[in-house]
Amino acid sequence: MQFTDRLFEKYHTVWRKNHEHPFVKELGAGTLDPDKFRFYMIQDYLYLIDYSKLFALGAVKAPNLEVMTVFANLLYYTMNEEMALHRKYASRFGITEKELEEAKHSPVTLAYTHYMLAVAQNGSIAELAAAHLACAWSYWEIGCELAEIPGAKNHELYGDWVKTYSSEEFGQSAQWNLDLLNQLAEGKPESELQRLEEIFLNTTRFEYMFWDMAYHQQMWPMDEQVTA
Q1: Quick one: residue 220, left, alpha or beta (phi over 0 = left, psi -120 to 50 = alpha)?
Q2: pLDDT digits (tens), the chain, 228 positions
Q3: What is the sign of the dihedral through the CA atoms of 55, 106, 81 and 36?
């Protein structure tokens, strides 16, 4: 059994909660409130900026050219393919470039990205790989699952999102993540594997919190009391 098979088997119940979140369900059905999706796209754009930094750190920490190449490919795909989708949606939803540049992180976005970056900066290359796996892996699975819903890939607002995350290109990107962690976990003692499990579980939980944050459009609870 590969290490990612072990993760899936152990945390399948937690994993499925992301697929079953109302944001994901309504996105696939085409009934999601556009304001919620707009909020999500802005926060996810901010998330992807920090997510890309993980891959840059991975290239720095890579033990060999093969792993460095994987991280370079992941960095290129995220910044040039995935973020392109967000810029396209920004225009469609009336989000200006200025709004994207000046957007503030929600508490969940801030906590999630800071957790991943802390793991990446302070931990091993395997811990770094575990930190970014849940996002790519779950989006690929969710994208493929939603693509099976009749009409989801052609929805006027959400079809491009479904097509992107169910695409062969994104699937290849997700598979790079899976293969990399399996490679890096091979031969490690049980204590280290349990640490990788903990990181994966935490980021899976953060994935759920991110969907929930977007669905309820949650920013800081005292923002209205803060003046510039």
Answers
A1: beta
A2: 899 999 999 999 999 999 999 999 999 999 999 999 999 999 999 999 999 999 999 999 998 998 899 889 888 888 887 777 777 778 888 888 788 888 999 999 999 999 999 999 999 999 999 999 999 999 999 999 999 999 999 999 999 899 989 999 889 889 988 999 999 999 999 999 999 999 999 999 999 999 999 999 999 987 655 554
A3: positive
Among 2, 55, 1, 9, CA closest to 201: 9
Residue-by-residue DSSP string for 165-216: HTSHHHHHHHHHHHHHHHHHHTT--HHHHHHHHHHHHHHHHHHHHHHHHHHH
CA dist 227 and 135 (Å) reads: 34
Which residues are annotated as catalytic?
135, 207
- Cα distance between residue 77 and residue 171, in whole Å: 11
The C-alpha atoms of residue 103 and residue 220 are separated, in whole angstroms, by 13
Neighbours of 11 (CB within 10 A): 16
- C-alpha distances out from residue 139 to 167, 204, 213, Å: 11, 11, 16
Cα distances from 102 to residues 51, 114, 151, 216, in angstroms, run 18, 19, 35, 21
Contact 197, 10 (CB under 8 A): yes
φ and ψ at residue 21, rounded to 5 degrees:
-65, 145
**The total number of residues written for the chain in this structure:** 228
For residue range 60-88, list pLDDT tens digits in order.
999 899 889 988 988 888 888 777 777 77
Which two tokens mark 85?
């989708």
